[in-house]
Amino acid sequence: MTPHVLIVDDEDAIRMVARLGLERVAGWSVTEAGSAVEAAAAVGTVRPDVVLLDVMMPVEDGPQTLERLRALPGGADLRVLFLTAKAQRSEIERLRALGVDGVISKPFDPMTLAGDIAGLLGWDRP
Q: Which residue numbers delimit the Response regulatory domain (predicted)?
């Protein structure tokens, strides 16, 4: 199985670095979205194995986007990992309490990103 990852982040550079790490290092498939609206459209089209969701985005932040995605048909079963620059324990606990599978701190290492995702989701490491 080749995992398909949806990266949702308003910063083009973050999406590009994550894409490079996931595609070139791990051989995974990637779809990008720059907003909650784009993420919802992508989920309806590609049905990702996991969503990497930025916490701090304009218009709709990560928790609001998570709520939007969960409301989609089949959205309740989506595997979601938050991406955040705020890596304090209290913030990570608050985000996990929203029902996501884990939290990855920014900046992340693109060379180990696939392994980090796999570890949080209980998948075999690439």
A: 4-121
